[in-house]
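Readers of this paper often ask what the protein records in our data store actually look like. Such a record has a labelled line for the sequence and another for the backbone structure tokens. Nothing more is needed to write down the fold, since each code stands for a local backbone conformation. The record that follows is passed on verbatim for readers who wish to inspect the format.
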Amino acid sequence: MIENGKTVQVHYKGTLADGTVFDSSEGQEPLEFRTGVQSVIPGFEAAVVAMEPGETRTVTIACTDAYGESSDEMIGLVPRQSLPEDLVPEIGMMLEMHTEDGSMPVRVVDVDAENVTLDANHPLAGEDLTFELTLVAVL
């Protein structure tokens, strides 16, 4: 078991249940992070800290240990007139919404004549994630 506070280097490939690759370190430097500081999703870190350098394993992380369940509370209507005049919202478009607590990315999920529906859930919320992991080094 790798101790908290250690820096690790990991190559990874993340896929969804249908086999779609959503992220990968292929062709790049390995992902480097410090354990115990919650800089990666909990299930990812839990899998890595149980590995030995040079080991490769495949793990499936339930959405609750990844980006959580999708929440209807994170979806809301915004009047089109409150958007900038030059913005033409399209489904799938990513926008940045400014709130009293700061800014957050939101995705346009519906557009009609009067409103735009925005989803502030993480794009991978509600998804179980499968990772092929290779622990490159513990520094």
Summary: The mean pLDDT is 95.
